[in-house]
Structure formats: structure tokens, C-alpha cells
Specification:
Structural class: alpha/beta
Number of strands: 10
Distance between the termini: 37 Å
Order of helices and strands: HHEHEHHEEEHEHEHEHEHEH
Amino acid sequence: MKRYQMKIFRLFAESSNADRFLGNWRQIMAVVACVLFCQLASANCMDGRRMVGVNLSGAEFAADKLPGTYAQDYIYPDVTEMSHFQTDGMNTFRLPFLWERIQPQLFSPLDPAELQRIVDAVAAARSLGMCIILDVHNFGQYRGQPLNSAAVPAWALTDLWVRLLNAFNDPANVAFDLMNEPAYMSIGDWANAAQNTLNVLRLYGARHLVLVAGGSWSGAHSWYAKSNGISNADAFQSFQDPANNYMIEVHQYADADFSGTGDSCVDPASLSAIMANITQWANTTQKRLFLGEFGVPDNAPCLSALSAIVNGAGSSPVWGGWTYWAAGAWLATYPFTIQPDANGDKPQMAILKNGM
């Protein structure tokens, strides 16, 4: 792999004029294509099977206590926790964690202790044959400063992911989720940062499935809503990947403002329409979708709403799967949790099983 990287960088360095650049660019892309497609066997997380699972929450806790104390302020899931959801028929976990903990200073090495916790979580998932999605759960910011600002340049995220690639270079059971809900930057800036980061990962030989969240709060319900003149539908219609091994990630909650904070839910028919509209967008633009977050409390109207969302995410081959929000050992009182208790599985799990 290093041989290919050196050739790419040499070709860039030799591109001193426009004609030579164009010629070298064709060679660069040919090298990239060989790196990607000649080695792409079994590159997709779970070998391309539909991914169904749950967010295992805990490592993203206490963002106001950085770095925080492990097992006091935040926690990672263990193999026992994972094994329960595998028994329920799930094959995928999304693992939220904080950028500031894994990389305490921008453009600097990853924190060894925090990296080992993620390594252990990945190993636990691998031991069960499960896909694990590494999710930088930072909302488009770092230490309160937005990505693509003077304090946090867009290339800082690229640097983080190159370092994570070096630590998790086997794509067999690991997928990359570039940024959760990048709400603290513009949609256009996020689309550009995501495209550049994905391009660099591919240049470095990454064969992983990559999830690219929609801008703002990534809502399916607001996919066509314009902010500063651009919507997610606009920004991501031309998004591309040399490896064609990515999905556009959306989130969809069921309360009145779709924030995932209320205990009542809207009419299931409106949620079905939302899911149908974004499915049509994906069909039109030839994109694949992943429902990275959705969840409801366990009252009857909300369980009906959950059925509408799950059915919508299974209505077409453009949907690569979903991960419910959420489960985790520290979520005992959270109304959306599907963490089992002394009574067994939560009511939401029966609906999720119907959608697997």
C-alpha cells in the first residue's frame, strides 16, 4: 500500500503546469482505482448484507467534562452487551465517541488509552461477527468551535480520519461514520469537508464502508429545506466515492419537532410520507441511504410511529440498513432505550425485529 501512496504523491509533486497536471491526474486516478478495486473483495462491512442494529451509547457522554474520567463520566460497551443484541437478530452497532477524547489536540496523535477502548470494542464486535460503525459524535465542532473555522480547519477532520484509518485498517467489520449531525456548520461547508475527507481516505487506501451524514441535524424530514440557499438534497446529489462504497446517513425522530426529545409522536402517515420522499430522492440521484438514528418512547402512538419509520427504511433497496437510538448500560431511565432490564426486551424491540 505504501508503494501506491508514494506513487500518488510523486505524481502530485510533478504536476507543475496545467497540462502535466491533467495527465498526471489520470494516472493518479488509475492508481487509486487499482488500490480500491483490485483489493475490494469483502470490503463492505458485513459483506454488503443489510445492516440492522443499535447505537450503543455511553462513550459520548459528559462532553462538558473533557477528557472526563472513564467509568465515571463515560463508558464503552462490552461483549456481553453486544451479545444480547446479536441474539435478538442484530448485526450492526454504531459506536458514538468524542473527537476531543480520541484526539485531545488537533493534528496530534490519538490518545493511547482512549484508542485502546475503541480497539477493545471493535475486537468484541469482531468476535461476534458484527459490524461496528465508528461514529465521531461531535455535531460539526471541536471544543465548541465549528469545523471549517479558523480554530478548526476542515482538514483537521481529515487528519483525524487518516489516523483512525491507520489504527483500524481492516474493513472487514469496521465502517467509518465521518461526523454525527454536523449542525454547527453550513450544509455546503459540510458537504465539501465530507467529500474531501472521503477522497483522502481513498487515496490512503481505505476500503471501508463510509457513512456520510446529511448536513445540519441530518433529518430526513428536512432534506429539501434550504439553509443559506442550499439543502441537503442539493448538496449531496453530486456526492461521489471512487470506491462506490458509501451511504448517505439520515436521522428521523417521531416527535412534533423531530428532535428526538419529546414523549409524544406525530401521525404515522406523515412519517411514512417523509420516508417515501427521501427514498424517491435516493432513487433519482442513485444514492444509498442509511438510517443512523431513530427512536421513540414505548407508548402506543409512538410504537405505531416507529413501525412507520422502520417500514419506510425497508421499503426499497436504496436503504442499506438502520441503527436504532439507543441502548447502553447507563440509559436505564432514558425513554427511548432498548437496553434490556429485569423484564427482558423493551416493547420497541418487537417492532425492530419485524423490520429486520
